[in-house]
Amino acid sequence: MRNQKVGSVMTTEVVRAEYGTPFKAVAGLLSEHRVSGLPVVDDDQHVIGVVSETDPMLHQAATPLAYEPPPRFRLARLTPRARRQAARARARTAGRLMTAPAVSVHAEDTVVEAARTMVEHRVNRLPVLDEDDRLVGIVTRHDLLQTFLRPDAEIREEVIREVLQRGLWLVNGSVDVTVSEGVVTLEGQLERKSETEIAVAMTRRTDGVVDVVDRLTHRFDDSEFRDDTRVPGGVADDWLRRL
């Protein structure tokens, strides 16, 4: 499978800050470039943290209003989270304002892996690193969504070539493949049940696929013999071991 890599969809011109970048300069970068966050790097361009657009707002939120009464002592202010927020509210540089460590991905990671990382950590953008863990780009949710804009015809060709022919060694026409709005329908009869499972699993992991409609049937149910049964050659051996 040739899943699209993060490096092919990322933005290479990255707005960044250094540890000592002043607070006002950070706010200026976020506003001028209209970005929701930016990575903070050291002298070797290693990402040491991330500043989001909400971080400078902590400073404003912590500033008392003229008519506001003096704050009373609260036990909640003694919690680690409260102390961290209080320290960031007093921050004067990007290094003090940032969240660390930074959540990042590598340029060779797949778009699917990057999407999972975004969802898991609830972030909208990720710094992209090279093999030496240096900053080379930034990828946003908008960038990852471009994968789902692949034409249906292109998706169909890849499913036939990579899944059916290379993965399962099936002759052309063994399975009918149709794609509509990113939804792939697989219809036909294969020799073994394990082959149908592989076909569906591999198709689902193809870039741009929204869903898979499984209309495949099989002649032989090999599920109870799976430890000893392998589809010969190709990448199917590995897929069988994962099922």
Descriptive tags:
3-stranded mixed beta sheet, CBS domain, Diverse_CBS-Domain, CBS_dom, 243 residues, elongated, CBS domain-containing protein
Q: Termini, distance in Å?
A: 17 Å
Rg from C-alpha positions? 25 Å
Structural class computed from helices and strand pairing: alpha/beta
How many individual β-strands? 9
Spatial arrangement of strands, main beta sheet: 1-2-3
Mean pLDDT: 85
Task: Tell me the helix content.
Answer: 25-40%
Can you count the helices? 9
Q: Could you describe the largest sheet, including whether it forms a barrel?
A: 3 strands, mixed
Protein name: CBS domain-containing protein
Domain BON: 152-220
Pfam families: BON, CBS
Domain CBS: 10-68, 98-154
What does this structure look like?
It is a single chain. With 243 residues, this protein is an alpha/beta fold. Helices cover 35% and strands 21% of the residues. It is built from nine helices and nine strands. The chain has a three-stranded mixed sheet. It has a three-stranded mixed sheet with strand order 4-5-6. A hairpin with a 5-residue loop joins β5 and β6 (135-140). The radius of gyration is 25 Å and the shape is elongated. The two termini are 17 Å apart. The model has no long low-confidence stretch (mean pLDDT 85).
Can you lay out the helices and strands and say which pair or pack?
Layout: E1 17-18, H1 23-33, E2 37-41, E3 47-52, H2 55-62, H3 80-89, H4 94-97, E4 105-106, H5 111-121, E5 125-129, E6 135-140, H6 141-145, H7 152-167, E7 176-180, E8 183-192, H8 193-204, E9 211-220, H9 236-242
Parallel strand pairs: 1-2, 4-5, 8-9
Antiparallel strand pairs: 2-3, 5-6, 7-8
Helix pairs in contact: 2-3, 7-8
